[in-house]
Amino acid sequence: MSNSPYWSGVFPAITTQMHQDGTLNLEATAAHAETLIASGIKGLIFLGSLGENQPMTADEKRLVISEMVKTVKGRIPVLSGVAETSTPEAQRYVRDLEKIGADGFMLMPAMLYKGAPDETLAHFRSVARSTALPIMIYNNPISYANDITPEMLLQLSDEKNLVALKESAGDTRRITDIHNIVGDRYALFTGVDNLMLESAILGLDGWVAGSGIAFPMENQYLWELSRVGKWAEALAIYRWFTPLLHLDVSTKFVQYIKLAVQEVGLGKEWTRAPRLALTGAERERVLKIIHDGIAARPKLPSDWSPGALA
User: What are the tens digits of pLDDT across the range 138-195?
Assistant: First the structure.
């Protein structure tokens, strides 16, 4: 695992709050960020997939990061997802955000394009060489059709500012393969909520949390239990949490998690088209999962505060 304290801990992928008409609600996004910071997180990732990066205009994305840099005020790193559809646009984006004051990036393969391995490698190299800031590689072959294998990570290891990996292949065997092939070259984060505990046992530096943005204290407590090897206590929290964590691995994960955020009073469920509002039986099913989770919400130890265990 990485020895860098910068790249460790919980780095939530926060939603971008919207008004009901789909326009940006930067004030609500900032308020949610403050709640997450208070829970003990170590970094914030804006404009990931959960942050609805792809439906935003170029100007909107730059505005979001500019305002969130002002909100966070250097207390923790501010990262932006990079999900441009071409390598030149991704290069332009990271250069612009470096000037705006972002602290780093979570870089996805070029969206809408299934590349051959050499093309994927070239994309990551080209973007990395366009900024001096650190980059977290985001591997999610289930959603984005490009698999960055452990062998490819080894080939990228000479790019010094590719420093971390968000691994979302959905296969915990990949965690050990990465350790065996690249050692501790990259800080290793899980990006699959409902594999967090299994992945933590195999060796993680951090967690890019999704559903946990609606339950930040419980999310942080679970993470800290895993850091100190209190597996029985962690398992008890995880079993309560898992139905909620499943919301992160659905096609409609943005709607589901935004609905959870709304039901705990941390934002609204509104999304931007082409995503549509949840309705009917589907909405009721998801609401039941959320409300059951709220009703059974575990009482955290009175002597625990964020950072007390890890």
Answer: 999 998 889 999 999 999 999 999 999 999 999 999 999 999 999 999 999 999 999 9
Task: Find the angle CA(149)-CA(231)-CA(37) to the nearest 5 degrees.
Answer: 75
Beta strand pairing status for 206-207 and 187-190?
A: parallel
CB 46 within 8 A of CB 14: yes
Q: Locate the domains of the chain by residue range.
A: 5-295
The answer to whether the pTM exceeds 0.85 is: yes
Predicted pLDDT of residue 310: 74
Report CA-CA distances (Å) from 64 to 20, 32, 38, 185, 256.
18, 14, 20, 31, 22
End-to-end CA distance of the chain: 15
Nearest residue to 136 (alpha-carbon basis) of 111, 156, 116, 151: 156
Tokens of 130: 């366009």
For the chain, the three-class secondary structure string (H helix, E strand, C coil) is CCCCHHHCEECCECCCCECCCCCECHHHHHHHHHHHHHCCCCCEEECCCCCCCCCCCHHHHHHHHHHHHHHHCCCCCEEEEECCCCHHHHHHHHHHHHHHCCCEEEECCCCCCCCCHHHHHHHHHHHHCCCCCCEEEEECHHHHCCCCCHHHHHHHHHCCCEEEEEECCCCCHHHHHHHHHHCCCCEEEECCHHHHHHHHHHHCCEECCCHHHHCHHHHHHHHHHHHCCCHHHHHHHHHHHHHHHHHHHCCCHHHHHHHHHHHCCCCCCCCCCCCCCCCHHHHHHHHHHHHHHHHCCCCCCCCCCCCCCC
Fold of the domain built from segment(s) 5-295: TIM Barrel (3.20.20)
